[in-house]
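note to self — DONT lose this again. spent like an hour looking for the file last time. sequence + predicted structure for the chain T wanted, 503 res
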Amino acid sequence: MSLLRGVTTLTTSAFVRVAAMTLLAAAGTAWGQAAPTPEAPPAAVTQAPAMPMADGPAAAHEQFNRLLDAGDFAAAAVQARKIVEQTEREGPAHSDELQVALMNLALAEHRAGEYVAAEAAFLRVIELIEGSGRLTSPRLARAHAGLASTYHAARRYDLAATEFEIAIALNRRNEGLFNEAQLPLLERQVDSLTELGRFDEALRARRYALQVVGRRHGERSVPYARELESLGRWYTRVGSYEASRSTLRKSVELFAALSGPSSTDLVGPLTALGGNARRWLQDPQFIAAAAAGPERGVLFQDTPMPAPPALSPSTVASEGQKALEAAASIAGGNPDASPALAAGVRAQLGDWYIVREQPSKAMPHYRQAWQAAGAAADGEALRQSLFGAPQLLEYQAPSNWNRYAQRPPDEVEIRHVELELTVTAQGGVREPRAVGGNDEQRLVAQALRAVQTARYRPRLVAGEPAETTGLSFTQPFYVLRETETARPAESAPPAPPPAQGGG
C-alpha cells in the first residue's frame, strides 16, 4: 500500500467530542479548516513532551479534548496514542472503543501535519470495520472521508480522488442521494480532480453539488446563488471564461433579486467576475484570437481557422472593472459590511489597475483599503496580511519551463533559477539579478526576461506604497538529464505556454 491513501472525520461516542469536528460539518470546524501544508508541517508528534496517562478513560479523553481545543495537536496525538494503546490492552471486546480511539488519533495526527501516521490510523479503522462485517456503519463513511481529506491535505490528489469517490458513495447510501452533508466532500473531490486535470469528472461533481442544493433549497434561493458563484469560480480556474461569466452573472442576478441590489451577498460573485476578467485578458489564447482579425481567415481561405472571440478585450475589461467597482461600492456603503470586506474589495480593485498597467489609478484604492483595514478588530494584522509584503498578481512564465514535465522521472530533473529583485512602489520589477551561482546561462536569461512581466501589489508603509528591495524569486525548469542518448534541450520541439496565474 502506497503512503497516503485517503479519508476524513470522526466518530460520535459518549466520551468523544467529535461531532463538531467532522469533515461533514461546515467550514470552520476542525476538519473544515485548512490543514498544514506538507512543506511546513507542525512539529512531529514524536517530538512532543511525554505526559502521564490520566486516571481512567473519561479523564484521558477529557485531557485529549483539552489539548485538541487548545490547538496543541502534537501533544493531543501523543495522548491519543496512549489511549489507543490502553484500549488495545483491554482486548477484542472493546473493538468499538478502539475504532473511536483510532479515529481521534487520526484526527490529531492530521491536524499536526503527520499525514502518513494519520493515513495508517484511518486504514486501521477501515480494516476493523470491514473485519466486523458492519459495512453499513456510518463510521466507515467517516473513516473513508477522513482518509480522503488526509490525502488531499498532503496533496496526493490521485489517492484523494479515489477515496472521496468511496466516501461520497457510502455517504449517499447512508444519508440519501441528495443530502447536504456530502457537499464538503464534493468540494474537495472537485479540487482533487481539477489538480489532476480531470476536468470532465470535476464538472460532473460540481453540477451534482448544484443539484443537491437545488433539491434542498430550490433554484430561487440564496444557497443556490452561492453554489452558482462557486461553480463560476471553478470555471475561471480551468480557463472556461465564457462559462464563468455566464454562471457568475446568473449568481449576481439571483442574489440581487433575493437579497436586494445593495446586499453584501453580491460582493462575492462581483469580485469573481472581476477575477475572471483578469484571467481572461491574460490568457495567451484569448490574446492571440483577439489579435488575429477576421481578414486572416479570408487571406488564407482556411475555414478551420478559429473565429474571433465572442467578446472583445475592451468589453471583457469594461465588464470586469465595473463588477469590481460595484462590489467596492456595496462593501463601502452597506452598514452591514465589515471593514475587512471593504478592505479586501478595495485591494482587489487596486490589483485590477496594477495588472492593467495603470498604477496611478491603483494607489487610491490601496490607500482606502489600508484605512478600512485599520477599522477592523484585528486591524494591524489585517494590514500586514494585505500590504505587509509585495504580493504577486501576474507573471508570464517562460514558455518552455515545463516542457519535459511529463517525461519519466529518470529522464528529467528540476533546476531552479534563483533571482533577487526590487519591487517598485508602483508594483513593477526593477534590477532583477541571478543569485546562487547558477551556471545555466540560457535558463538564467529566460528567467530574467520572464520576471520582467511580473506585477505585484506593492507593500504599504503607513498607508503609502513603498519600494521593496531584495525580494527572492524562484523559477523552476524541467530539463533533460545529460545522457549519451539524450537530445540537447535546444533541439526539443516547442511546447505550449503554461496556464497563467491570477484570479
